[in-house]
Structures are given as structure tokens and as C-alpha cells.
Amino acid sequence: MLDRTIQPLICEPEQLAVPSPECRVMKNGIPLYILNAGDNEVVRIDLLIEGGRWQQNQRLQALFTNRMLREGTRRYSAAAIAEKLDYYGAWLELSSSSEYAYITLYSLNKYLPETLDIFESIVKEPLFPEKELGVIIDSNIQQFLVNGSKVDFLAHRTLINAVYGDTHPCGQLVQKEDYHLINPSVLQSFYDRYYHSGNCSIYLAGKVSEDAIRRIETLFGSEPFGKDFRKPEKRSYVPVTSSEKRIFTERADAMQSAVRMGMLSLDRRHPDYLKVRVLVTLFGGYFGSRLMSNIREDKGYTYGISAGIMPYPDSGLLVVNAETANEFVEPLIKEVYHEIDRLQNDLVPAEELAMVKNYMLGDMCRSYESAFSLADAWIFIHTSGLPDSYVRDAVEAVKTITPVEIRELASRYLCKETLKEIVSGKKMS
Fold first, then answer.
1. Where do the Peptidase M16 C-terminal domain residues begin and end (predicted)?
2. Could you tell me the strand order of the sheet in which 101-108 lies?
């Protein structure tokens, strides 16, 4: 009989085995990464294009080029694409990041020939039709205006602009007028420059058969496609951080204020990054963190508060996020600094650090348990320029970090003087 009054033993994973993908370089030079895992007759195909915000010539160019791929091709209208994908039980995702565009297809194996035909047309022959583009731009403008009334949206925009500056891609804030400057020719020029076989890679994950590999190689690996086969030039940008410590954005009708505190942090390739992740998790990266325990549980200033590092090329952005009643803004900020002081001056109790380690190791185990999550992991590793040993190194960093190291890292990287204070909400008299 199970005695539920006795807590189960906590078992630390001895080793986290993360299978490496098989890499085949296809005839036209595109690398194909294969992760054959799982029992369900489903595959996911990710086609990555090295062309994101870092490469665009004007705001929103990369985003809308990627977004419009499904809105009509030489062979299929937007309605036909949606209807056929729905009929075959497939799902298409389009997304864009700092340096990459992602075209992702989920498909049942038995319908892969049909869904790959649509996928190929989307990748190789989009039309960027003006009518559909106009509808999508109008919809995005309305969403932008709605977001502009939200204090969390305003605070986040203000923070990244204050930290990175107007000349950096992160700090260049989209305005309503930018949407009106997007047209089919702007998107076509970006597509012609970056969407080609010399500038992409493909990840195939799930229950992968040789037939699926052969079809990918036939459609995407046999001949070059695209117009401009130059690799994108690497662009580096220097952040120009504002000298202002506190920046306030007023929303007179706001019931709550959004608080964002942030500063430049480590790039993912920095030797200290993996151990700083443990520090930030302890500080505000999970439900039992210092910020949550103090500011939510003890003081009751907010329903939720978190801290994390947002990764960007060549840098990271350490952010503390919270929303609180207008009268609690100042005491909340004061308690954030108090928790930084504690981390810099006091050793973390062994029991608390053990709990953080177990949380992070468990989270890693969950992150690598399926073929699709494995694909996500390897895409992250490859696009970030990290070594293949990254997962093993991350586990080792979590297991070996000590309270003394936590205190030293807090003193080095949690700098109260450079932490920006962004408040968006109602001005208190």
C-alpha cells in the first residue's frame, strides 16, 4: 500500500542523453538534419532561411516576407493552400527571428507527397499578392493599435529602446507608418536576396522513413533554387544605451502599472552564460524563485514576477517583468534591489540551490523527450553557433555550480547601477 504521507525520494538524473541528428549534405549543398524518433506516423519539416531583422533594409520587411509565403503561389491561391492543408490534416507555421526565417510543416506520413507539394510551392514560388497583403497589413495595424494601449507592451518597447538605442535592430521600434511602407516589391526584393538554396538548411524530425528523405532530396536537394546565391553578410551592431535610469510612460487610465527592469547581459557563447542561467533562475526564473517568494507570496505586490535573459545575436537582455497596482511600483522596485543585495552578499542555502538544480534538470529532461523538441534543441544550438556539447555542458553547469559561485556571479553580472527602471502606467501624485 502506497503511503502518501511520505515524500518520494528526489532522484537527480545521472546523464541526459540527447541524440544527435544525422546530417546529409544534399546534391545542391543544402544540409539535411534527420532526427528519426517517435512512434506516431507524423513528421515535422523545418526549412531555415538565414534572413531576419538583422538583414532587412526597412522595418517589418523580414517579418512580412515570411508571413506572406502562405498567401498565394504560382500554383495555389491562399484559399487553396489553407483548404488543402486542412484536408490532409497538416499544419504550417511561419515565424521570423533576429537572423532567421522559419517555415515549418507538420504532416502525416501517408499524406506527405501531397503536403510536400504545397510546401515546395510556398518556399519556391510565392507571389506576395497585393490584395492579401493589404488585408494582413490592416489586421496587423489594428493589433498594433490595440497593443499600444497595453502597459506591458509600452514598457517592453521602452526598455529595449533604452538598452539598445535607435541604431540597433533591437531598439528600432516599429511605428504605425512602417506598415504603410510595406508593398509586394519590398517583400519580393528581400525574398530574392535571401530565400535560395545557398542560404538554407532543413531539419526532418519524427517517424522518418527513407521514402520521406528521398522526397525531400528530390524536391529541395537535387537542383539549386532561388536567384541570388550569395551568403548573407554578417552584420554587427553596437548597443547605444540611454543614460536615463528611470523612464516613465504614462497611461492615465491604467488600472495597473507595468514594471520592466533590464540591462545588457551575456551572449549565449560566453563562458559564464550557463552558470548565470542558474543564477537568473534562482533570482526569478521559476515559481519558487526569490522574486516570487518575496514580492508575490510575502508582500503581495503582484500576481506574478519573473526574470530571464532574452537572447539576441552578440548579446543578451536581462529583464525583470511584473505588473502591479500603481501604488506598489516603488516598493516593488525596492524589493527587486533587495533580492539582488541578498544574492551578492549572502550564500544561497544548500537546500534552496538543490531545489533550483532539480527544477532545471527536470525541465531539461522534458525539453528533450520528443523528436520535435529534439529538433527545436538542435535548431537552437546550430543557429546560435553553439558547440554540439551544449546540452552536456548545460547539465554539467547546473550540477556543479556552488553557492560561492552564485554569489560571485551575482556581484559580477547583477549590476544595480546599470539596471534600467521602466514604468508604464498611471502617474502617481
1. 183-358
2. 22-25, 31-36, 200-206, 42-49, 101-108, 91-96
Confirm if 97 and 116 have CB atoms less than 8 A apart: no
Place of cell 546523464: 15
Q: What is the pLDDT of residues 384-414, one digit of tens each?
A: 999 999 999 999 999 999 999 999 999 999 9
Assign a CATH topology to domain 246-425. Answer: Cytochrome Bc1 Complex; Chain A, domain 1 (3.30.830)
pLDDT at 8 over 80: no
- For residue 142, what is its C-alpha cell? 489594428
pLDDT tens for each residue of 9-55: 766 666 677 889 999 999 999 999 999 988 899 999 999 999 999 99
Measuring CA to CA, how many Å separate 173 from each of 64, 166, 312, 315, 320? 16, 8, 16, 18, 20
* Residues 151 and 258: beta-carbon distance below 8 Å: yes
What residues are paired with 315 via a beta bridge? 312
Burial of 180 (0-12, 13-18, 19+ CB in 10 A): exposed
The three-state secondary structure class of 218 is helix
CATH fold group of domain 22-221: Cytochrome Bc1 Complex; Chain A, domain 1 (3.30.830)
DSSP assignment of 239-293, as one string? Answer: ----S-SEEEEE-TT-SEEEEEEEEEE--TTSTTHHHHHHHHIIIIISTTSHHII
Listed range (233-247, 261-275, 412-426) with the worst mean pLDDT: 233-247
Is the pTM higher than 0.70? The answer reads yes
- Structural element, H or E, at residue 117: helix 112-124
Residue 429, C-alpha cell as written in the block: 501624485
- Burial of residue 316 (number of CB atoms within 10 Å: 0-12, 13-18, 19+): buried
Residues 262 and 149: their CA atoms lie apart, in Å, by 22
Q: Residue 176 contacts by C-beta under 8 Å, 6 or more apart in sequence?
A: 141, 144, 145
Angstrom CA distances, 377 to 44, 108, 202, stand at 14, 22, 14
Considering the chain, tell me which residue range(s) the CATH 3.30.830.10 domain(s) occupy: 22-221, 246-425
Q: What are phi and psi of 36, to 5 degrees?
A: -90, 100
The C-alpha atoms of residue 44 and residue 107 are separated, in whole angstroms, by: 6
